[in-house]
Design a protein that fits this description.
By secondary structure, the protein is an alpha/beta fold. The protein is built from 14 helices and 13 strands. Strand 4 and strand 5 form a beta hairpin. It binds adenosine-5'-triphosphate (ATP) and magnesium ion.
């Protein structure tokens, strides 16, 4: 299960005046990392729980790889979906290795397979093997989050639901875990739905961001489109679209480069060098720091071209509130 299609999905809790999820429709492709962003109470957690059927919808349909989720046996469905939450939900009386292996045990994997899987997962999330026998209370918050991530990945689910998994962490630990998640994603190509309140985290991680408000999807688009073409002032304010440096941080040097090699290619000595994959926010800092109008861009070998301040400026699009598909 990795492709997700929602058709007019509704969750109305009994006795509540308004539905928590008010008829959302969207499609997520296999292997996409989707971030759900929106104010408290807008329905993010409810939407995740509709996907693993901790909640049943009161309207609409959810298709997982083309099959109506309602028609799938609920325990089998849940075992194939990894679920990680902020409080980690680790079992306090179970050691790290036992916590990681909960789902493989339920699936009756043979012991050697579970052992090998646990070894591999500890390495994947960057924890030493010696942590196997620790209890959760003997770990830091960030280490517990890593165990939570390993547990969510244990039975190799194609779909991962992550509800503010790094919410309670300090900024540095958070960045480490974001990098770990991106590394894992590059290796494993899961479909991931990731909830956060942190816009920088959303922009850093997402292939596409689903902006929600009051149970509905306001805009579902790439970080770059949200920043440059927010659909309305709510989205613009939520993602900080007026922040030019934020826009630049999502763009690469190679996309801005207009002056290709040839001109002055040999005068690069002593100047800081840019790589095609560097982001433009970094490039701007380098340009300003060096006090130059242009810096050489080098991949491997000769100078590819020169990135100018004018190139950087040209990539800063004015923010307009407009509709997009
Ligand atoms: N079990 C429930 N019974 C009744 N109402 C609920 C239930 N769960 C959630 N709600 C309501 O549904 C709405 C959406 O809640 P949800 O937890 O999905 O929000 P959220 O976007 O995850 O918010 P947060 O960012 O604070 O976690 C809220 O108004 C909440 O009070
Ligand atoms: Mg929530």
């Amino acid at each position: 299960m990795s492709r997700i299609v929602a058709e007019g999905l509704v969750k109305q809790f009994p006795g509540e005046p308004l539905p928590a999820v008010a008829g959302v429709s969207f499609a997520v492709a296999s292997g996409e990392l989707i971030v759900l962003l929106g104010p408290s109470g807008c329905g993010k957690t409810t939407l995740l729980k509709l996907i693993n059927r901790l909640y049943e919808p009161t309207g609409g349909r959810l298709l997982l790889d083309g099959t109506d989720a309602q028609s799938l046996p609920v325990t089998a469905l849940r075992r194939r979906i990894g679920y990680a939450i902020q409080q980690t939900g680790l079992f306090p009386h179970m050691r790290v290795a036992q916590n990681i292996a909960v789902v493989p045990h339920l699936l009756d994997w043979p012991r050697p397979r579970i052992e090998a899987r646990t070894d591999a997962l500890l390495a994947l999330v960057g924890l030493p093997q010696s942590y196997r026998t620790r209890f959760p209370h003997q770990l830091s918050g960030g280490e517990q989050q890593r165990v939570g991530l390993a547990r969510a990945l244990a039975a190799d689910p194609a779909l991962l639901l992550m509800d503010e998994p790094f919410g309670a962490l300090d900024a540095i630990t958070r960045v480490h875990l974001q990098e770990a998640l991106l590394t894992i994603q590059r290796q494993l190509h899961k479909t991931i739905l990731f909830v956060t309140h942190d816009v920088e985290e959303a922009l850093q991680l997402a292939d596409r961001i689903m902006v929600m408000r009051a149970g509905q999807i306001v805009q579902f688009a790439t970080p770059h489109i949200l920043l440059t073409r927010p659909k309305d002032p709510f989205v613009a304010q939520l993602v900080g679209a007026a922040d030019g440096l934020r826009q630049l941080s999502l763009l690469r040097v190679e996309a801005a480069l207009t002056q290709r090699a040839g001109e002055g290619a040999n005068d690069a000595a002593g100047l800081p060098v840019l790589r095609p994959s560097d982001d433009l926010r970094f490039a701007l800092v380098q340009l300003l720091g060096a006090g130059c109008d242009a810096l050489p861009v080098i991949a491997d070998g000769p100078v590819l071209g020169w990135l100018t301040l004018a190139d950087v400026r040209a990539m800063l699009r004015p923010v307009t509130a407009e509709h997009e598909g």
